[in-house]
Amino acid sequence: MTKSPESTPASEWLTAHEAFAAFCAQHPELGLRPSYWGLHNLLRHHRQPLEAADALRRANGRHWIAHRERFDRVLFDLLTLSTRCELRPA
């Protein structure tokens, strides 16, 4: 099976739980807890903009995966900027 040129290598992706735990450890000032329910609640409010920025994808229709670089940048902007229209360009 051949890959399309625009596909992203799998090594650039981790599970959403791993990415969220790393984000919480990197940004303790935000007061987030790296738990199952912490991620669940975060996705309830911020899933759509994370998906739109290609920072979060659903794998096999069930599990969430997060891009190593984009997830941190986009999530930080979502949590700290006052409106969603202010998100920094990629």
> pLDDT under 50 segments (min length 5)?
none
Quantity of strands, as a count: 3
Strand % is: 5-15%
In quaternary terms, these chains amount to single chain
Structural class: alpha+beta
User: What is the average of the pLDDT values?
Assistant: 86
- Through-space gap between termini: 30 Å
The strand line-up of the biggest sheet is 1-3-2
The value of Rg in angstroms is 13 Å
Total helices: the number is 3
| Broad shape | globular
The H/E string reads EHHEEH
Describe the largest sheet: 3 strands, antiparallel
Overall helicity: 40-55%
Q: Which helices and strands, and how do they pair?
A:
Blueprint: E1 13-15, H1 16-26, H2 36-52, E2 56-59, E3 63-67, H3 70-80
Antiparallel strand pairs: 1-3, 2-3
Provide an overview of this structure:
This protein has 90 residues and is of the alpha+beta class. Helices cover 43% and strands 13% of the residues. It has a three-stranded antiparallel β-sheet. The longest helix is centred in the middle third of the chain and has 17 residues, at 36-52. The protein starts with 12 loop residues before the first strand and ends in a 10-residue tail after the last helix. The model has no long low-confidence stretch (mean pLDDT 86).
